[in-house]
Amino acid sequence: MKEDIRAPLIIQTNKRATELQVENGCYEKKQDRCMVYLSTFVAVCGSFAFGSCAGYSSPTQSAIREDLNLSIAEFSLFGSILTFGAMIGAITSGPIADYIGRKGAMRMSSAFCVAGWLAIYFAQGALSLDIGRLATGYGMGVFSYVVPVFIAEIAPRDLRGALTTINQLMICCGVSVAFIIGTMLTWRTLALTGLIPCAILLFGLFIIPESPRWLAKIGHQKEFELALHRLRGKDADISEEAAEIKDYIETLEKLPKVNVFDLFQRRYSSSLIVGVGLMVFQQFGGINGICFYTGSIFESSGFPSDIGTIIYAIIQVPITALGALLIDRAGRKPLLLVSGTGLVIGCILTGISFYLEGHEIATKAAPILAVTGILVYIGSFSVGMGAVPWVVMSEIYPINIKGAAGSLATLVNWFGAWACSYTFNFLMTWNSFGTFMLYAAVNALSILFVIKIVPETKGRTLEQIQAAINSS
């Protein structure tokens, strides 16, 4: 009888902790992943709050300027100060998440967003608006780092990519919802809606566990095992996963504490190049310039801006969801390569449309070519380059440098967002065709970077990823 029970055992490689194991002749239950899903849902409420902040200024511009009698320069400061707040948040996000935990960092970020939204709601002039916008920007900067890191640290390896990609999906949802309901609500009421995801997050953080890897890192052994049990299910055997995490933490404890300058040591160079490089290519490929000025791009090419913007807002959500479904099946590198190829094609099509428009060649085809190029660009970005760099960043850094390295990568990302959005209008004034050819060249370089430098992390534990990077 015991032989019959033992017969269907499946031998698996690379020491992976199986969902179905046999102990003392009896099958264990499968891992209960409800807490993983709940924890992910709570965390990505921060991502939705991120998107709400990013999408707020576009539909409210005329109403805020009219009600508060703001000049174009004053409203431009209100819009752009968000990225400066996010850069400050990016600089401090890693150390904060390492010091008070992933949940503590999300609580603090939510508090800044709540304070910022209330300042905007009660604003009677430009100063209060700017203070509120700076505070929500700071919250965005922290969220942009800590949410994908938290999800990557709690998720089983076979779900890690998909769950981490939900971060980008919820950012897109937040932006799209702000665009849509911003046309129906007053700007003050729209600011109050930004409080909703923050409230859900703050309440949910009382229910979900802290990151087991962070608890292990700070030496809280009982809390570490309890958190891992809650995430994997009370009947799951966590011994192998717990041992792997603890062995890795013990190895890291032997390494010296690091700061930003220590990141440039040879031992961390591979991880640093991959994480920062992906952020550089993500932003300098043109996304924020194209995103912020989609309406003006369509107008310049002769396509109705309102129709084009609505199509843009609708298309990015399902395609980002598609990327989330594919990332753990196809892998990180294939999605990045497909995405990069689409970005090059989208830039070339849009650039050609401006060339035709400027030289009065095929004037009827130019607007169609422009909207096709922009939609190909947005769709390609959403399926890969939008989310995957954040997933890879959350996976490749050793936990002893994750705070400092994550802060650096996030800072580079936000600096690129500011630089791209700031220079876009100047570049378009210089040469519209040349602008999109420049972006096409950057995206072509990103393809080479992914092929040569970026490792595939699908199906590996965080500890196995580190071992592979270090051996290479």
What does this entry look like structurally?
With 472 residues, the chain is mainly α. Helices cover 78% and strands 1% of the residues. The protein contains 21 helices and two strands. A two-stranded antiparallel sheet has the order 1-2. The longest helix has 50 residues, at 72-121. The chain crosses the membrane at residues 36-57, 77-97, 109-129, 135-154, 166-184, 190-208, 272-295, 307-327, 334-356, 368-392, 404-424, 436-454. It comes from Anisodus tanguticus. This is Major facilitator superfamily (MFS) profile domain-containing protein.
Key phrases:
about 475 residues; mainly alpha; two-stranded antiparallel sheet; 2 strands; globular; disordered N terminus
| Shape type | globular
Order of helices and strands: HEEHHHHHHHHHHHHHHHHHHHH
What class would the helix/strand composition place it in? mainly alpha
Number of helices: 21
GO molecular function: sugar transmembrane transporter activity
Transmembrane segments: 36-57, 77-97, 109-129, 135-154, 166-184, 190-208, 272-295, 307-327, 334-356, 368-392, 404-424, 436-454
Protein name: Major facilitator superfamily (MFS) profile domain-containing protein
Domain Major facilitator superfamily (MFS) profile: 39-458
